[in-house]
Design a protein that fits this description.
Layout (H helix, E strand, L loop, with lengths): L4 E4 L2 E4 L2 E3 L2 E3 L4 E5 L6 E6 L3 H20 L2 H17 L1 H12 L3 H25 L5 E3 L2 E9 L3 E4 L5 H14 L4 E4 L6 H12 L7 E3 L6 H7 L6 E5 L2 H11 L6 E4 L5 E4 L5 H9 L14 E5 H15 L20 H16 L3 E4 L12 E4 L6 H4 L6 E7 L2 H9 L6 E5 L3 H10 L4 E4 L18 E2 L4 H8 E8 L9
Parallel strand pairs: 9-10, 9-12, 10-11, 12-13, 14-15, 14-19, 15-18, 17-18, 19-20
Antiparallel strand pairs: 1-2, 3-4, 5-6, 7-8, 8-22, 13-21, 16-17
Helix pairs in contact: 1-7, 2-4, 2-6, 3-4, 4-5, 9-10
């Protein structure tokens, strides 16, 4: 072990940046704290504009060779990265649980296998990425995907490694080089990813990882003139800052900014299914951008729905996320916990009623909460809380349900519970959302487009849409004449 190595639940984690295939330390550090018990995990190198410049320079230098690497070879290396992830699933799971407080069993069984799948999927999609040539007045049109260049990826803390690799994998597959800036509250598994990528044979400078706290390094990365793509997942205020920073260079952006998604429950729905869908929104302590936090229930079944919801919510086990029996762990940070509590207190003061929860627990745990008697224009209905807090409103007609569902500035997702196929078709057509689930939730396929409308984001990623973003699309038009026969 060295002075720059932490031991996290028995796993060695380097606290330095990964730049140009080497570990780089910073003069200053920031403190990483576990949300499970508030204990200090360790000190992490705190990057500045200097490290940002180094990382972008390394990515720029590595870009020509990586862009020229054949699709088959890029895919082979990405599969090797996936192999490395699968070998270290247990290490990655326990480190990430320690760092962000999400369930260990979920990391083991779902999240980390999905990390490996991210690399495999985009490696395989790259090999079949093609567009059929077409004719225009006898001329041939050929569409190609050219690597765009160094890409800056800024990722959130609620699913750190999975959401990082959701961006890293297609960017690398496309032939771009990457500078990844993980969230300051959850930097550890990104460091492990650097080790895995190096062991898999990813060339130096193709993947760079810089850690930072606050906006200094982020501003330096997003304003850098050598950056060709920026992908960000996070808050609307931060997205505005990134957009302003990128504007002078006209750097293309992909922004996924969360939401305030609805769950519409009609009287013809299977109520047990609807209740299960509603309680599922507490997953990851409510720290899920896609969560349907606004429950809209047809008035004729609202009382019965609420009764069953309260019974179901009472069975939730909240506690240490390393315990196999735990359903909900802690919230990420004291600052986030105070934000959640502030939303709920203001709602209660404005006349809302807590049917479930409505208060803090010990440490960084917030009780799963359901608020009723809330106005459509109230803060708790309109603004993203990003915690285990749901609201319940009623409607009497299909038109009213859609009107309430669409009446926010967001449009990331929506969930619909109904037993009527025709109604499902009518309502989903009218909902403003990037993803709509009907009688299900959180079923995701990487080949489908993902993104939001309105203030929930800009652009779509997934499948070919990811390559459209991370590449410069070129159309080559060739005439049938003008050729010389060289024998």
């Amino acid at each position: 072990m060295t002075e720059h190595t932490l031991t996290v639940a028995g796993v060695a984690v380097d606290t330095r940046h990964w730049i140009g295939g080497e570990r780089v330390a910073s003069a200053e550090t920031f403190t990483d704290v576990s949300p499970i018990d508030g204990s200090v995990i360790g000190e992490i190198s705190r990057g500045t504009a200097a490290e940002a410049d180094l990382a972008v320079a390394a990515a720029k230098a590595a870009f020509p060779a990586w862009a020229a690497t054949s699709r088959a070879e890029r895919a082979r290396i990405l599969h090797a990265v996936a192999d490395g992830v699968e070998k270290r699933i247990e290490d990655l799971a326990i480190v990430e649980t320690t760092d962000n407080g999400a369930l260990l069993r979920s990391h083991r069984r779902g999240v980390m296998p999905r990390v490996a799948h991210n690399f495999r999927f985009f490696a395989d999609w790259l090999l079949k990425l093609d567009h059929e040539d077409f004719e225009t007045r006898g001329h041939t049109n050929h569409v190609s995907w050219d690597p765009a260049g160094p890409s800056v990826l800024i990722t959130p803390w609620n699913a750190p490694l999975m959401l990082s690799t959701w961006k890293v994998a297609p960017a690398l597959a496309a032939g771009n080089t990457v500078v990844l800036k993980p969230a300051e509250w959850t930097p550890l598994t990104a460091s492990l990813l650097a080790d895995i990528a190096a062991e898999a044979g990813l060339p130096a400078g193709v993947l760079n990882i810089v850690q930072g706290y606050g906006s200094e390094i982020g501003d330096a990365l997003t304003s850098h003139p050598d950056v060709r793509r920026i992908s960000f997942t996070g808050s609307v205020p931060t997205a505005r800052r990134i957009s302003a920073s990128a504007a002078p260079n006209l750097t293309p952006l992909s922004l996924e900014l969360g939401g305030k998604s609805p769950l519409l429950v009609f009287a013809d729905a299977d109520l047990d299914l609807a209740v299960d869908l509603a309680v599922e929104q507490y997953d990851n302590a409510g720290q899920v951008c896609l969560a349907a936090t606004r429950i809209l229930v047809e008035e004729s079944v609202a009382e019965e729905f609420t009764r069953r919801f309260v019974e179901k919510a009472a069975t939730i086990v909240q506690g240490d996320p390393r315990d196999e029996a735990t359903d909900i762990g802690p919230n990420i940070h004291e600052r986030q916990l105070e934000k959640i509590d502030g939303f709920v207190r203001r709602a209660l003061e404005a006349g809302a009623r807590a049917v479930v929860g409505g208060h803090r627990g010990e440490g960084r745990y917030y009780a799963p909460t359901l608020l009723t008697d809330v106005a459509q224009d109230s803060e708790i209905v309109q603004e993203e809380v990003f915690g285990p807090v749901l609201t319940l409103q009623t409607f009497t007609t299909e038109d009213e349900a859609v009107q309430l569902a669409d009446d926010t500035r967001f449009g990331l997702a929506a969930t619909l519970a109904t037993g009527d196929r025709d109604r499902a078709a009518r309502v989903t057509e009218r909902l403003v959302a990037g993803t709509v689930w009907v009688n299900c939730f959180f079923v995701r396929d990487l080949q489908a487009p993902f993104g939001g409308s309105r203030h929930s984001g800009v652009g779509r990623e997934g499948g070919t849409w990811s390559f459209d973003f991370y590449c410069d699309l070129k159309n080559t038009v060739t005439a049938p004449k003008g050729w010389k026969d060289h024998g």
